[in-house]
What does this fold into?
Amino acid sequence: MTRERGPTGPAPLLACRWSHAVIGCRPHKSEANVAVDPSNPFLSNLHYHLPNFVLAALMYTLLGRVLLSLVVDPASKNYIWRFFCRITDPFVAVIAVVTPKAVPPIVLWLLGVVWLFWLRVGLLYLFLLLGLMPKAG
Amino acid sequence: MERNLYFVGIAAFGVINGLFNQLWVLFALIHVQILAPALLFGSVGLTLMFSSLMVSTATIILGGIPAALYERSIGATSDSTDTSLWIWLAGTGLLALPAAGNFLEFKL
It folds into this structure.
């Protein structure tokens, strides 16, 4: 009678980390220094991921501001609301320059979300044109 | 002209471009899938609708830039003028021209 193998899980990895810490055995190659490995695709393309992340964070914060404005008074002292306003106000001030004055504030914030989406597309193409994007495969 | 009619016209041109401009909707669809895959739970139908919305809104935004610059040039402080709304309407109309063929062919 053959015994079936149990499900794989975090136990072997934890055991190895424990043995590495306690008795000094070397970790597996696959887990060694993942965070600082220069071949890590995230770290090696940080020049793209960082501005893209900032724009994405701004986009979702602006979307959050729109949703929050449905339930929070504009003059509210709520700290989340104040944080959202503080983060997004500089960008909103910039797009207000190129938006007609007939547009009410909440629509301006929604237009800001769309601006940021297309700015992220533009950033992607800028890096593609400069040849700074990671190669596939 | 009634101010609301300007807004209806601007929105209509945006909708036409967002629904019938196949090139830009496809372009937006690809990029929504790259840049915001988790936002719409991986649903292709929702992603297509979102892409259409992005193109519509981009049409309205780009059409509004000359109008906003005109407002700054004449020193409008509180609200848009009739002329700037005309510029906005004309701008969105021009941007929606590539989709006009598909729109007219669709025969609503």
Summary: Chain B has one domain: 3-35+45-97. The interface with chain A takes residues 3, 7, 31-32, 34-36, 54, 57-58, 60-61, 64-65, 67-69, 71-72, 76-80, 84-85, 88 of chain B (CB under 8 Å).
